[in-house]
Amino acid sequence: MFWHMQIPLRVFYVMKFVFLSGHMKRMEQKDINDFFSNAEGYLRNVSVDNVIFGYHGKELRVLLQQPFPLDKWTVTGGYIKKTETIEEAANRIAFSRTGLNELFFQQFRSFGNPKRIIDQSFTAKNMTELSGIEVSGDSWIFDYFVSVGFYTLTEFSKVEVRKGPYEAGCKWWPINDLPPMMFDHSLIISEALKALRLHISHFPIGYELLSEKFTLPEIHSLYETILGKSLDDRNFSKRLMATGIIVKLNETKKIGAHRSPFLYKFDVEKYEAGLKSGVELVF
Questions:
Q1: Are residues 105 and 144 in the same domain?
Q2: Between 20 and 30 A from 159 (CA), which of 56, 61, 169, 263?
């Protein structure tokens, strides 16, 4: 059933024609009609936007989706089922794009502005042409929508990117080189990054972005990348080790002829305690 599918942020996305091998595959007319006449399974006028961050090649990246048939992109998002919490909705959305469960995610703020969904492509005329049914300009899909913002952290190498059936693409983008964004999603990403920078200074969330074993230079680079500033090597290592959240292993990583730094890993018990009570990592 249509209502049991993953529904992206706006109805606009699910009304698209799906282009497969140069052909257009239209959704069943009954499904489209049901979408407008029976939205009882989901909360109206509120949605979840989930900014999924990954770290790769010394770059912070964000997973974006591109709805058909636009040249603009959005963060991953969707409606909230009446049978789930907003946290469950955020987790469901993250799983649908990464294939991973139980990721670290954090609500950071809400977005509410009567003009936030205004976009030249999101009009009654375009919706009518794309859906094949008459869409009124006063339809509920054009109502004022409030979005609850979350960010999710994941280890880049573990993600199997999953494109939705009504999307042209879904892929990682460097945080400093984003494509044209739809609606207010540039602002959402910017605010998510601000929240991440604040939280990483007080909570040991680097655990979510690194491999299980890492070197001190690697975690140092991660923090510099997220915070957007240089950090003194010795001071950083001293403060991090003082928290007890990482432990030194009797293993090294060979990265050159004369360079074999020791490997470290997070102490999971102390990491989880740090998430609850906070740790002093202000740089």
A1: yes
A2: 263
